[in-house]
Queue: 3 jobs
Job 1
Amino acid sequence: LANDLQRHCETYSGSTSAAVFVEPVAGSTGTLVPPKGYLERLRQICDQHGILLVFDEVITGFGRLGQPFASQAFDVMPDIITMAKALTNGAIPMGAVSVRDEIYETVTQAAPEEAIEFFHGYTYSAHPAACAAGLATLQIYEDEQLFERSAEMSEYFLDAIWSLKDIPVVRDLRGIGMLAGVEVFPIEGKPGIRGNGLQKSMFWNGCHVKWTGDSAIIAPSFVAERQHIDEIVDCLRRSLQEI
């Protein structure tokens, strides 16, 4: 994909592309971890052609990979980061965008001299309840060192996921940090049906896990203990063996 971007820029000029949007780890497609060097290559191409690099960190942000943001885990700095979900621990809807200083200055300097804010708002911008939830969540992350705990628990969690590799129906296992994907072989001609069945089976076995098509997304809470991870993986194993 990075090579495709380079070819596009060489064919049509980088000036035809304003920005490249990418999830550092693709979440809803089943935890697709990028190949080594992929994000670095995107950064190089964007720098070469004057294109903004945007990381969608709605899933990976706030400790999911053991660092505050995936950009830090991969040591690749984008120009813009979008975030949500864990910003308030899912307690109330809230999203945010962070940008490099140069982008911020470009936007704010374009405003009328007497302007007092970035006038782009919508009805529920800076909702007091959402902001309170966000501040409280960030304080808990810091006080309880949950990002560090995520990093510490990652090895145990991923080892537990890898233990499923010999189950015949398992097609692929992927993971990084406290985020994993379990993909099963689809039923011929009926993609997604097996995943739907596994989601129901896991529910009745005591664990509710989101399946997208024939891939499950496993993302334990940062306060999970080892026995909780064992329970999740044991439930998954039973369902995979029963299907």
Job 2
Amino acid sequence: MTRPLTRPLTPRTLKTGALTAATAAVAVALTSCSSGTTTGPQLAFTDEAAATAVVDDPTAASVAASEAAFTRAEAVFLSPPEQSEELAEASAEARMPLLLTGDDDALREELDRLGTETVIVAQDAPAPAAAGEREVIEVDPEARADAMGLPDLDADDDDAPAVAMIDPGEHHPAAAAVAATVRAAGGEVVEVPGGDPRVSGDSVAAAERSPDTSVVAVGASFGSTDQLEERMSLAASTTAELPGGGQLAFPGRRMVALYGSPGTAALGALGEQDVDAAIQRASELAEQYEPHSEEPVIPAFEIIATIASSEPGPDGDYTSEIDPEQLRPWVEAAQDEGVYVVLDLQPGQVDFLTQAQRYEDLLKEPNVGLALDPEWRLQEGQRHMEQIGSVDAAEINEVSGWLAELTARNHLPQKTLILHQFSTAMITDRESIDTSHEELAITLHADGHGTPQLKTETWDVLRQDLPEGIWMAWKNFYDEDTPVFTPEQTYDVDPRPWFVSYQ
């Protein structure tokens, strides 16, 4: 049972009915002058933005949140990190910070800065050494805040300009405490899956406001403080968001795409109908995946923009390039309906960069990414269908460097760069692929077809020694798969694919 509050009387809590209002005011003023007690609210919030901080140590993270949100707190919750979730809700409701034990020196310094007189702990919790001679109140952590017998303190009227960024996938031991402290001061808590503030519309909005707020990010996924500040700056300067919100292709969304070329049914499902019907079909496909995904599922097109040809053609390069302006109506219609577009290249004897540059104007659209299909990349003297084509990492890196620069120069959201593969020989020196470009989500598209066993074996082989920072994609074939995976079966693949296409 929570023991009754025996909080010492201070000039701000002393009330005597025999005093007139004027006499009481004089008494308080005199006592305050003699005792050195600070006037103002007993829970005072910051009113100016401080520097951004990325913090991993639990105690340091809780202190950073307190510094960002509070200038004074005469009562403070204190907890070991592993028990902090039990007190987080009460801390936020009572508008008091929640600090975490671990570094006693840091805690003492913060309690002194806050002018803390009372420390609140869970029943049976170890006595906090950092509390010193302060009053310690034990409370039932399962009780509501208004039933805990907490000090009745005056709080600031204005909220603190504080923001807590939390990566929900990291399950950081300080996440609950940091969020509670910022909420207690009227600040904002933003979930940032993966630790990149470009991931969602909410986190982008928080990044845009960051010059006027104190941002505390919890955990290693955010990288260094410099890295977080750079990403927030990118978020603020980017002119558009992707379908579904945010500026990162993944992990803020998954995509389900129709693959093919407009007006050519033989090349895939996308070409079996006009653009309006294709949008409806892709949207219906994406909806089938929604129940099986924690992330929003966005419809997409993967449009074959350059088509492998059995004949050399007028340029002698065994590829037929669709005029970019013929594809623009598809890109614009998709943009209007929240559909992402990937332009797929089958280059024949042309290098991938040369073909990609032909579609530069379309790639300047915020909802357009790029796919490279090495199966159709020929060397001089080779012909399609006589062997499987291939590309080396150096050529891929030329494309990624150009595409990243194009994206940055035009202040565009992150673009997908999809690499198709079903055989290890299709991409040589794969370990040398440059995955460092913040502007790109490089994605390996496993194109295996046939029985579930064959598709899974291809998937597993392609994932071996995959460079860090590459996302995985899956393809379902309407005609070649026996049977075609259902949406549930597709998302049961481990790891769950971020991009799924239908051919």
Job 3
Amino acid sequence: MASFEPIIVAFACEYCAYTAADMAGIQRLSYPANVNVIKVPCTGKVDVLHIMRALQKGADGVLVAGCLDGDCHFKKGNNRAAKRVEYVQKTLNDIGIGGERVQMAYMSAGQGNVFASVATEFTEKIRALGPNPIKGGAQKAAA
């Protein structure tokens, strides 16, 4: 499993986390290329189904990255996202897949270093967990 490269989907708030990812690039801070950043208007719009579908479609881990507490442009979107992430984590634990495959992170637009650090640490954590156990089953079922 040493050659396993996890697929990470990162739902990033366009006002904070997505800008932080962009800032990481501008500052030439590296983070794993297997982190696929998806810009969303607000993490509050990321639904449980989006997270679960990402896992079903082959992601080994899902990162939901939003604004710092109290800085959400839509007031409490990041709080709603955190509750949804907790729900998915509990559900994944209940079915034996492991809730640690989903994580919520908070950062401001200027914290490119935080985005790079979180993305790298999360990728390492998922690499240690190994491939998503439902990935193979979902792909076989689709065939």
